[in-house]
Amino acid sequence: MAAPGIARPDPAPVAPLRLAFVGRPTASPQEAANWTPRQVMANNLRSVVGRAYPRVRGLTREPSWLLFQMLLPFLTTSSFVFVYRALDAPAAYIGFVVIGGAMTAFWLNVVWMMAAQLYWEKDQGNLELYFAAPMNVMSVLFGMAVGGLVMSSTRAVAILFIATVVYGVSFSISQWALLIAVFILTLAALYGFGMMLASLFVMWGREAFHLTQLMTEPVYFVSGLNFPVGRLGFIGALAIALIPLAVGLDAMRQLAFVSTGPTGTPAPWIESLILVVMTVFFIGLARWLLHSMEERARREGRLTVRWR
Amino acid sequence: MSGLIQGPAIDVRGITRVYKAKPKDVTALAGIDLEVVPGEFFGLLGPNGAGKTTLIKILTTLLLPSAGTARIFGFDVARETKQIRRIMNMVAGGEQSGYGILEAREQLWMFSQFYGLGAREGWRRVDELIDAVGLGEQRHQRVSTLSTGQRQKMNFARGLLNDPWVFFLDEPTLGLDVSAARSVRELMISWRAAVPGRTILLTTHYMAEADELCERIAIVDRGRILAIGSPAELKRRVQRESIFRLELDRLSGGPAGLARLPGVVSAVAATDSPADPNRSARQTVVVNLVLREDSALAGVVAALDGLGAHIVALAKSEPSLEDVFVELVGRGFDDSEDTGGTDQFPIEPHEAGQPDPEEQL
Question: What percent of chain A has pLDDT over 90?
Fold first, then answer.
């Protein structure tokens, strides 16, 4: 069996290449392998930036996302606005839908670009390179989250702005600081939830994929993206206790439309605490799952298996 | 530099790897022992399904062995994964990693961050490596538009971002055309020459590639190492006699007269086509001569002089690594049974209707 093009290669110009081939000279592999805690932390933080980079860069590379990620979802939001107008619903309901439409961007991003992402990463051959690199793979998940947040925030802000202007939504906000805090906590809990789901993909490929598909629409429904979740009674209360999107959205609506009165759901500060607990729980669970799944996947030989 | 390095670069003891599969488990590695010294260019040569890739996955900490131990510069592959990941890197043939939407330069920078290089340091290092691997003109080209050869050069640059002490190359020239394969091989040689003391473990099923590049080779088949040695040592294992190809201007009486000389095992007229297109015009005679040892050649030359024959050309024939493999295994590479479950773990079928992952960022 012949290798393609076997021939004694010409002697390479070693001197000019030497500098290029030596980045950080180390005296021994033992020296190169032993990092200080500071080096470890720097590596993890830089990995967050590194993994966020393609997502942020991608925003400027494919303008088609303006149509698919902003204008088309805006039509869905608009349809609910027209339904509420036809029913003579309270004006705040239009605002509810607009906030729900903006938050949809984050949920879709969490489902398809966080939870399912490691499925694609494995398929493309990236996953084994991530695991073979020295950083903590949680950094990759954080990087995916940061990049996803930038992508989704752009879409959310656009929907919020366009819908507010077009449909004349008037907000009545009394606690700006709490509203901002709830928004940030909602995203933290939501992306923590996505990281937890992503961890499952290291071990379970298609099974986790189906789980994600299965939960997309039900979460849409019980989160009350297009109506107040309090209307769902017990199911709504359950959603508030379990789903970051439901509790965050309800708290934001309460804070952005104070004039609508009682919603039948917990006060915003209680919902904020629920979000804090969810954030800690989901990120902690994601970390534990990722570690456990990596060990199990290494044992069973699944880290390097492609699903195709 | 290498004076500070202690112990073997790669130390493998009794490594076994069994994959759970239906209808029966697949044994990819069946008790491998291997020691690679620092600075060595070591090759694993074997047919598809021999277990080469499984061994690389274990050494790169992506797979745990079912039994046995493996160490990279003293670090255990099962427990000290972080230390190993800081000092090694890997590149595989046909690798499609990264994101097609990024430029080559951007993709490499992204990977530089995973190895802890600072932002500016990362850009500088990427630019140096892009020039070193000859991708200067493609630095701003999107990864999705690079040719297979250019992509593999980029992968090679990615593998050098962290100055690895051990560089694992798994069939790195697989699927490349002649020119691209040569470029990648030149890069391996240049890197080793530029950074002495670094170790390369190359897997390949191209025998000439292993022969050309590696200082030592392990011949692997069905999860076992059959032989280890330098290419010359391995060839000597199968070369019990000296073989010469003798081209004469004439030979009265034919080669049978030579076969009767002391130390000559056989002398047979060559039946293959002439390598020299002018040979037939010159009416020469080619004889394949097998001698018990090289020293018997002197007697042959003297006898030819007595017969009035003159030597036009004389070449000693070397056995190839394929001859070694055939000797050890009893079959050629091309006859190898691909078990389909050792290097590539059984895969699940593609799920229909899923979107193309190419641009999934």
Answer: 30
